[in-house]
Amino acid sequence: MQPHRSHDVDSPDFFLKARVPVLRNILGAMGWAVLTCIISFAILAAAKALLPPQYWGAHTGLARFQREMSLPLLLFWVLIYSPILETFLGQLLPLEILRRFRVSEPVSIFIGSILWGIVHYLSGGLLHAIVALGSGAMFSLVYLRYRAPGVAPAYTTTALARAFNNCLLLIAVAYGIDA
């Protein structure tokens, strides 16, 4: 019989050790989502106060999706599909490419948020782009914050933060606060 090593799966504390980083990432994602939601609403309020309505652009908030989709499809889109796809296209691809070129983290966050703002400008106008700049910067920050152990923790934590953020936005829209 071989002695157990600390990395053996059948070790009694293996699963306890494995749960700690996962739980930390889930709780971190929830915290980042709340912070991103607060920042997004602050940016939205400031932009609406400073910009005349004719510059706001198309209405692309969650309320539009709420009107156009059934509830199960909306929940799938907002809480599962969108965070997975947006994290891949908005953080993983651009930030990993910038990382290969050894671009600094602050510059990577700036470039990532600009790219995310441009995509949202094309789909929803200036107001949508301004809010997306803030959330894009936050999600880029989250991705880079959790990148040290590897791509998987960074991707999953950022995707979870997006899902939690979208959940908070969905609740805000349900209560009449349209983002």
TrEMBL record:
The protein's UniProt keywords, in alphabetical order, are: Hydrolase, Membrane, Protease, Transmembrane, Transmembrane helix
Gene Ontology biological process terms, A to Z: CAAX-box protein maturation; proteolysis
Report the residue ranges that make up the CAAX prenyl protease 2/Lysostaphin resistance protein A-like domain in this protein. 71-147
Q: Which GO terms describe its molecular function?
A: endopeptidase activity
The residues that cross the membrane are 26-51, 71-89, 101-119, 158-177
Specify the protein name. CAAX protease self-immunity
Which organism's genome codes for this protein? Janthinobacterium psychrotolerans
Phylogenetic placement of the source organism? Bacteria, Pseudomonadati, Pseudomonadota, Betaproteobacteria, Burkholderiales
